[in-house]
Design a protein that fits this description.
Distance between the termini: 23 Å
Shape: globular
CATH class of the largest domain: Alpha Beta
Number of helices: 6
Number of domains: 2
Strand content: 35-45%
Radius of gyration: 19 Å
Largest sheet: 12 strands, mixed
Helix content: 25-40%
CATH topology of the largest domain: Aminopeptidase
Strand order of the largest sheet: 1-2-3-4-5-12-6-11-10-9-8-7
Order of helices and strands: EEEEHEHEEHHEEEHEHE
Structural class: alpha+beta
CATH architecture of the largest domain: 3-Layer(aba) Sandwich
Length: about 260
């Protein structure tokens, strides 16, 4: 950022390599946001990022040619350093959680859930594009990032007529924490049990690998998804999450 001096000394040197920015003990993953090469995605790892670290990340990303930065979904405690560095709220998200100590609904026999090889993953992205708005759609890199975001991952699809993918779900687990990372069903085939089967299949897998608490987030106003999660035992977390954004240089933040 303009007028922000870099302190000297190895301890505070800003380093960027392999999609990771480090400064002292602080670290964040950074890279292009999906298919828009002008927008950077910045996701802190570990403890909440300090305002000094966020500013240094902005400087690095500006030097790399990005025009805007967007964060991953952040809790209120994770947002402070970003807000102090000039970020604003791009979108509020609803956070829902499920205690896995209770019973799960019975797993229906239909529809059949299958693994997703390379060909089905390409079809999966077509379903994703039909399900989500342009800015939130996955591309190949985004799908790969979702699958690599946790220690364990579970990707399953449901096939329709002709053997094409009509729905998919990505779940992940790190230690005892579980996540429903993505769930999409072809819009014309929603409310037919496809999403319920995929979600339950993921929840049974998460319980089998030792997850004691599962979290999922979705956009405010996404009533079909919210209704599905609540029916499956998820409850709203009052803290919620927010995606933040900031312009770089003289450019201002603008929604796509």
């Amino acid at each position: 950022m303009n007028g922000f001096a870099q302190p000297s000394g190895h301890k505070h040197r800003v380093a960027s390599s392999g999609g990771v920015i480090r400064w002292g003990k602080e670290c964040a993953r950074a890279g292009s946001w999906r298919t828009d090469g002008s927008v950077a995605l910045l996701v802190p790892t570990g403890a909440p990022a300090s305002v000094e670290f966020v500013r240094r990340c902005l400087s690095v990303l500006s030097e790399q040619g990005f025009q805007r930065v967007i964060t991953g979904a952040l809790s209120p405690s994770e947002q402070l350093g970003f807000l102090q560095a000039g970020f604003g709220v791009y979108e509020h998200l609803v956070l829902l959680v499920r205690d896995m100590s209770g019973p799960l609904p019975a797993l229906p026999a239909w529809p059949r859930v299958r693994r997703a090889g390379p060909f089905r993953r390409r079809q999966l992205l077509a379903v994703d594009a039909a399900t989500f708005s342009t800015f939130w759609r996955l591309d190949q890199a985004g799908l790969r990032e979702a699958l690599e975001a946790t220690e364990r991952r579970h990707l399953r699809v449901v096939l329709g007529e002709g053997g094409t993918v009509i729905g998919y779900a990505i779940c992940g687990a790190s230690g005892s924490r579980g996540f429903v990372q993505r769930l999409g069903v072809e819009p014309g085939l929603q409310r037919r049990g496809v999403g319920s089967k995929l979600l339950l299949d993921g929840l049974y897998w998460l319980r089998a690998v030792g997850a004691t608490r599962v979290a999922v987030n979705t956009q405010v106003g996404n009533e079909p998804a919210l209704g599905l999660y609540r029916r499956m035992g998820f409850t709203d977390d009052d803290a919620g999450l927010s995606v933040l954004s900031a312009g770089l240089g003289a450019r201002q933040v603008a929604r796509s």
